[in-house]
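Q&A log
Question type: sequence-to-structure
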Amino acid sequence: MKFCSNCGSGVVWRIPEGDDSPRFVCESCNIIHYQNPKMVIGAIPSMDNKILMCRRAIEPCVGRWTLPAGYLENNETIEECALRESIEEAWAKLDNLQPYALLNLPFINQVYFIYRADLVNNDFHAGAESLEVKLIHPQQIPWDELAFKVIRRVLEMYVEDLKTNRFPFRVVDILPNYIKGDLVDHDLS
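Response status: OK
Response body:
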């Protein structure tokens, strides 16, 4: 950030008085510009013991598989976001949304909130952000073709939970070296 969105003057990176973290501060009007993590909201839509997945049509990761999910918009609840993203990406109508997982990715300033949900329509199809959507049996998840490691982690938990039909809400901290298997799960059941 170089300029204040309030007055257009230059900003400096410093710790504002009374704060403990550096922020962009306008040199002219003294407005503090806070930068906060982005919220990504999604769902695991299921029908007939299968999961609805989307093959991405947009960057990043064009052609790779994911769950319907996206950024939370202003003036929107997280449930509204999950429902909207499912329509936008797969023309999928969901019901019975149940909180499933909150995943912290502090190294990229994101927080994911994922629901489990019932897919209630059979006429789903690819939206503008998807090349293809389809119901996939959990044993046939294309693990090597997943778009995001955080979605991989959600699906790993879900497949494991299917074995017991118990779906506790989890908080998971995904660390930068998750590639090597480092993560912290907090089972809140």
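Response note: The two ends are 41 Å apart (CA to CA).
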